[in-house]
Amino acid sequence: MTTIHHHFSCSSRPLHPRFVAACALLAALLGCACGGGDNTGPSASNGPVATSIEASSGNGQSAIAGTAVATPPSVIVRDAQNNAISGVSVTFAVASGGGSLTGGAATTDGSGTATVGSWTLGSVGANSLAATSGRLSGSPVTFTATGIAGPAASIAQNAGNGQSATVGTVVAIQPSVIVRDLGGNPVGGVPVTFSVTGGGGVISGTNQTTNASGIAVAGAWTVGASAGTNLLTATAAGLTGSPVTFTATATARAIIVSNNADIVNGNVNSPAQLIASPGPDGISLREAVLAANEALQPWDITFSPILAGQSIGLLGPLPIIERDSTRVIGELNSNGAPGVTLDGSAACCEAMMRVGGSGITVSGLRFAHLTDQGQALKVVVGPYRLTLTDLRFEGNVFDNRPSASKATAIYLTSGVYDAFTPGLLARVTITGNTFLHLQGDGDAILVASDGVVDGVDISYNTFVDCNLGVELAHARGSNNVIRGTRIFGNSFSGSLSPSIDMATYAGTGNVIDSTSIFGNRFAGDLNWSLLAIAGETGSVGNRISTLWFANNIVDRSTGGLGILGGNQGATGNQISDVRIVNNTLYRSGGVTLGVDGSGSSGNSVVGFDVRNTIFWPPAAAPNSDFPYGGVVPSVVSFTITSMAGYTGVNGNFVADPRFVAPDAGDFHLQAGSPAIGAGTAIGAPTTDLACNQRVGAPDLGAYAYGPTGNACGSTARFRP
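Above: the chain sequence. Below: its structure as tokens.
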């Protein structure tokens, strides 16, 4: 019998329809391969052929951006008869939104399903994922998901910090913040409140809400009327970073003085007109003051660098500076000292510069050759207003060498100019100035009252070879007040009369109240370092109250400290509540306390004590620490003194305090000093002369043992 071999090949050539069924049957019986294209998954010889792919689950979800969707997306693969096909490779990949995934290479399981490991969404908004498998119908399969923001967690600056704008104008970029969730996604719909917190400006649109990008934008921010730092805060309750602070610098409008002539030949009707029409020689200081006074807003008066080292010879008093918040700012030389000098040689019998507005600053100028009976700087309450506040005189030099004329550098008074009508002068700062050779019965600083002077700070100034350093005085009238004066961090040397003098010379009911004198150094005074007299020259019923003298060094002062109820015929005056605490007096007169001076009667001193103080070394005179017997032992405590009757009581004793180098001016305590821990905390200042903390039982004297650095910070002082 002949065997017939039938060779059938199901090739890629097209088959006639009538042979298809036969081919399929014979292929099963004979093992031929029937094909017609690429197959994915099991070969056609071993099973069904994958033909399509589609989404199975996980489409159209939403999740917090940065987190995974709840249902990992999956696809199903089928053949032409809609049967699920296993073993088919599927690749998952992020298509948009910037998210990430795990298990991107997957294979269909027995149910024909392939599932991505996880899908973490990227940005807020639309995200998509693609599942691809060869050339199956439906590939790639796209899954979409929406990223949503989580709860608001933090707030931060977005734009508009660190700008500058001319005073009284709007910053160019409106400050804005951005609010995010824990994943760093922007969060919309969060309320934010913007508020001005410094500089005196204004903000429109204070209450804002974050947009879809998480950003809230403030309204227009107008900086304040004075040059300097402005602050704005954005607050969102409960968010990390709240409040957010923005800073902006308000820059002044400036008139630049460009010549040293004291003449007026420009248009002074306004700063703008003066700048446009300054005259043939440029702008003089006198022109600048006149124009600034006509301005609707404050201007700075500055000086061209070409004037450094030059003098402006004033032909008479400058006009009163009356425009509020005007600043006169001198040009400094390479040493940081004032380079422009105002020469008062010809400005006879009057103040060189007068201040008659609030918020005015004068800094970085040198005043020289003050005239007899004249002043360099005088504050004038009136004739324009009865109240002046917030004045600042900083970094100036007042040099009257070689003259010995009676001149005052800075004269403050609350009396209306030339009318003596009571007024108010409040919040004056005099800091970082140098006063040289103000002699002839004049003052470096005179604070006088016709009305009320409230809150004068005199700090970090240098006084050299002056008659009177600081004088607080009532020279006329009744019921006037000087209160809240603070004199601290100054250096006085070689004063001819008291370095600090407090007195009433006329009238009744005048008061000098709440004066703090602390952290100063007095060296080589030829008179008293401090002299306080409630009433002088026949005055009646005046008082000095609450005088605090603490943390001071008095080094080789002839007079030391003097407290006197009344003198030269004064009656019924009183000094009360005088506290002399934690001072060091070295080779100096001690503390003199008297009630009635020459020809006086009925005066009194009440509430007086000395504590935690060092008097050293013992002097030959038996009563050198407390001459004349006015200071009784019962009011001295925890003090180093050699006086009999005082030592051995109230914690007082005599012993070398062991200063580091007293003759070189170093009064820190050495290790083992008996002054360490020997004081009382009652009434003691919490810090020492150098602003270092006093820990535990206070040490005696101006310095606490231990730290030798200055924690007070540095303040510029212009030296001669």
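The radius of gyration is 43 Å.
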